Amino acid sequence: MKITFRMGPDENREVPFEEGETVMRVAVENGIDGITGDCGGGCACATCHVYIDEAWIDRVGVPEPDSTEACMIEVAPADPKPTSRLGCQIVLNAALDGLVVEVPEGQ
Ligand code: FES
């Protein structure tokens, strides 16, 4: 199973993942620039902020309003978008094989 990280207009990185890993963990393990996962997945740092590709947002879902994740996205360095998620809160499975996420510019 694979996930694609869009790093810029002309740079995509496709990397493999195992069921049960998070988007943040896969990014860190594969050296994706801009995703550092500083808090280790505790929903406390927003260094795993990503924009989910529009085509995938229904399958990935959005955080509950006023949840810890939604609040952290609001204070993330990169502008929040309707498709913003914290990568540490997305647990990957077969239904997300082929997922495309964008790493916010300047993160
Ligand atoms: S790794 Fe810190 S909020 Fe996701």
Automatic annotation (TrEMBL):
A GO BP entry: P450-containing electron transport chain
GO MF annotation terms: 2 iron, 2 sulfur cluster binding; electron transfer activity; metal ion binding
UniProt keyword tRNA-binding present: no
The keyword Metal-binding belongs to this UniProt entry's keyword annotation: yes
Taxonomic superkingdom: Bacteria
Domain 2Fe-2S ferredoxin-type: start-end pairs: 1-107
CDD domains the UniProt entry points to: fer2 (cd00207)
Pfam families the UniProt entry points to: Fer2
Cofactor(s) listed: [2Fe-2S] cluster
Alphabetical UniProt keywords: 2Fe-2S, Iron, Iron-sulfur, Metal-binding
PANTHER family, per database record: FERREDOXIN-2, MITOCHONDRIAL, FERREDOXIN/ADRENODOXIN
Family: Belongs to the adrenodoxin/putidaredoxin family.
Name by which UniProt lists this protein: 2Fe-2S ferredoxin
